[in-house]
């Protein structure tokens, strides 16, 4: 049996926590967490020890590794995406028991923090004392920084495995994709990012903050071999035209209105043609649930009308997976308690159903 290095095990056991525990609560959702732990570990007590022991199985586990990042500090419209990892996991376990993905747990999240670079030394020391009981710890304290740090070590030790990140607001995709792209470059592979979203997420900053849900794409472009290896699908809510984003940043976009007008088959052909001569080895799929029309995905911070139907998104994903291995992915912005459509629990359940279907497909592809 292959073993995990003691240094990486120590980092995981300190910087992560059991699945579902990354969302910070006092007593809210206690029953939901216990139910999730019962399903995963067969019991709801002593979970910390069981989870830490399970980390030793990581070397021989599935190629598809689940990581929850229950942070919505990088959002800014309606909060609540920090509940996404807990709720989506429960849905996957209930409805897709055949999945072989290994659940590595959740990033430990202080809900007021985003990235360490925004903090002074005194605050970092205080947060290290809170998280690790050691103000002199070498570990990061903010969710984006912890995620990137952990994943650099993860890919160095397990280059054949991939992370499926569950967010969280879309700022979480910054460390997920950055660590992925840098690892692939070190492996001599060319990777493209397929980004499903109603929004471009190509701001340089938002209200003075450079890493957030509306700007993360801008700050990974230099980690791609070519900027047009970022392909965005489902865009429809933007203060600027498609030409601005493509000409300014060099990316490629497929707006929802054009997908509707030309049909899904033509859209798939266009996407595949954009990838055809680029010598792409692998794909990473970043999926913001608001790429899906609000009639199917209302439990999110920024639901948008005139979006993709779930079947259209699945058709595109199946076509891509038939041509390229999907070796990394994420599902972002599912906010179960946030539904401005008036559908209430029905909207929550519908959003989770769509998110789980897409996630299950991506996990199954990553496990191949």
From TrEMBL:
This is Agmatinase. Its EC number is 3.5.3.11. InterPro entries: Ureohydrolase, Ureohydrolase_dom_sf. It is an enzyme of class 3 (hydrolase). GO terms for molecular function: agmatinase activity. It holds the Pfam family Arginase. It comes from the Bacteria. It comes from Colwellia marinimaniae. Keywords: Hydrolase, Metal-binding. PANTHER family: ARGINASE/AGMATINASE, GUANIDINO ACID HYDROLASE, MITOCHONDRIAL. Belongs to the arginase family.
């Amino acid at each position: 049996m292959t073993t995990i290095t003691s240094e990486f095990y120590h980092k995981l056991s300190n910087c992560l926590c059991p699945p579902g525990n990354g969302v910070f609560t006092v007593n809210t959702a206690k029953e939901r967490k216990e139910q999730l732990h019962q399903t995963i570990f067969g019991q709801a007590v002593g979970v910390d020890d069981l989870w830490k022991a399970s980390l030793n199985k990581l070397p021989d586990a599935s190629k598809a590794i689940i990581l929850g990042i229950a942070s919505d500090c990088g959002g800014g419209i309606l909060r609540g995406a920090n509940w996404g990892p807990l709720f989506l996991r429960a849905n996957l376990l209930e409805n897709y028991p055949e999945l072989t993905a290994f659940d590595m747990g959740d990033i430990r999240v202080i809900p007021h923090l985003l990235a360490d670079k925004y903090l002074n030394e005194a605050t970092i020391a205080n947060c290290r004392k809170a998280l690790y009981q050691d103000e002199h710890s070498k570990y990061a304290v903010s969710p984006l920084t912890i995620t990137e740090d952990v994943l650099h070590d993860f890919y160095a030790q397990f280059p054949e495995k991939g992370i499926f990140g569950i967010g969280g607001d879309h700022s979480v995709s910054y460390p997920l994709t950055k660590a992925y792209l840098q690892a692939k470059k070190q492996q001599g592979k060319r990777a493209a990012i397929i980004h499903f979203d109603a929004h471009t997420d190509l701001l340089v900053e938002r209200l003075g903050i450079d890493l957030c849900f509306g700007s993360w794409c801008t700050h990974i472009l230099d980690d791609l071999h070519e900027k047009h290896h970022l392909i965005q699908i489902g865009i429809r809510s933007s203060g600027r035209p498609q030409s601005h984003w493509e000409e300014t940043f060099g990316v490629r976009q497929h707006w929802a209105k054009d997908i509707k007008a030309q049909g899904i088959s033509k859209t798939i052909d266009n996407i595949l043609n954009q990838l055809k001569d680029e010598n792409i080895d692998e794909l990473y799929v970043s999926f913001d649930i608001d790429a899906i029309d609000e009639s199917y995905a209302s439990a999110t911070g920024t639901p948008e009308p005139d979006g993709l139907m779930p079947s259209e998104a699945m058709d595109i994903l199946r076509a891509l997976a038939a041509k390229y291995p999907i070796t990394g992915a994420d599902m972002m912005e599912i906010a179960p308690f946030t539904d401005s459509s008036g559908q209430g629990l029905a909207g929550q359940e519908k959003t989770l159903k769509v998110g789980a279907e897409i996630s299950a497909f991506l996990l199954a592809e990553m496990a191949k």
